[in-house]
Design brief:
Elements lengths: L2 H15 L1 H9 L4 H19 L3 H5 L7 H31 L2 H8 L2 H12 L6 H18 L1 H7 L4 H28 L5 H29 L20 H23 L4 H8 L1 H14 L5 H18 L10
Length: 321
């Protein structure tokens, strides 16, 4: 196994167990949305100091010309927005729902990638590709399961779990869209892409927290209906020791993804990234006593099979006639 393979496995490991520090921070009074925003803004500042030239591309100042630079910069901002929405939805889902269920539904991402690649990049969607989409969506239907939903409606956890499911699916959708934009603007440097990802992942949760505060003030008369709005200053002192470590871990994970993904075929990268499900399932079983239901085994297996099927097939760059 090469260093590039190991880098991707490390990235999958970090993402698979990231729920542990997030959940711990929340138990210490720092909500997951605040933790996400603070960690990524800290990572943004560190990268900006280390590579100040990356801001030139992000701001649209390219040596290849002002027009092309502005186009590239705008594309990076859009990409950063989608990555920010990805991290915000995924992490918020972790705060509300079951870890393994969240990761499984998030990995509908290949479905959305195929659809957006067809719409934005004009890639041809074959009959085989359609079959993979149907298999993955059917798996999601099994995971969500009518029986599970019926059982949940009997308790107050139903609304929270439903929101977590929707956020998980939305996170995968935005991730698929972000990856399409990553390919569309691949001429940007790794540092420009990484800086934009960090910045978007810090700004979006801050914007969401601001929107919540306005709604809380205007509609709920400042009665703190949103737990995420609790001030980060109220968090336990030990939480502030973990946030920099979380930022470091996320930064290393992203760098590992850039390193491995740029040196291995896309199919191999996608296949190795599926190990995140294994890391999430094992860590949830070990630390939280999570036991997968039959629906999660069957539906999750269908989603993973569809992702592996897509990973083992070379992408089609053919344009439709």
């Amino acid at each position: 196994m090469s260093l590039a393979h190991l880098a991707l496995v490390f990235n999958a490991f970090i993402w698979g167990v990231s729920w542990l520090p997030y959940k711990w921070l929340e138990s210490q009074g720092l909500s997951i949305l605040w933790a996400t925003a603070l960690a990524y803004m800290l990572a943004t500042g560190a990268l900006a100091v280390a590579r100040p030239g990356a801001f030139a591309g992000v701001l649209g100042i390219a040596s290849t010309g002002i027009s092309r630079g502005l186009s590239l910069g705008q594309g990076l901002w859009v990409m950063g927005l989608f990555y920010g929405l990805t991290n915000t939805c995924f992490n918020w889902a972790l705060a509300l729902g079951d870890v393994v269920r969240v990761v499984l539904l998030f990995y509908l991402m290949p479905v959305w990638s195929a659809i957006f690649a067809r719409l934005i990049l004009k890639e041809k969607l074959s009959g085989e590709g359609l079959a993979r989409l149907v298999l993955a969506l059917a798996g999601a239907g099994v995971v969500l399961g009518w029986d599970g939903l019926h059982t949940q409606t009997a308790n107050s956890f139903a609304g929270q779990q439903l929101l977590a499911d929707l956020l998980s699916i939305a996170g995968g959708l935005f991730f698929g869209l972000a990856n399409v934009y990553l390919r569309k603007f691949e001429s940007a440097t790794a540092y420009e892409r990484t800086l934009t990802m960090y910045l978007g992942s810090g700004v979006v949760p801050l914007g969401l927290l601001g929107l919540m505060a306005l709604i809380n003030l205007a509609v709920f008369q400042n009665s703190m209906q949103f737990p995420s709005l609790s001030s980060p200053l109220q968090a336990a002192p030990q939480a502030w020791l973990i946030v920099p470590l979380l930022a470091l871990g996320l930064g290393l994970a992203n760098y590992s993804l850039q390193y491995g993904g740029s040196r291995l075929p896309t199919q191999v990268t996608s296949l190795i990234m599926l190990s995140e499900i294994v890391f999430a399932a094992v860590s949830a079983a070990w630390f939280a006593g999570k036991v997968l239901t039959v629906a999660e085994w069957v539906g999750g297996g269908m989603i993973v099979m569809a992702a592996i099927w897509a990973s083992l097939r070379p992408p089609s760059n053919a344009k439709p006639a």
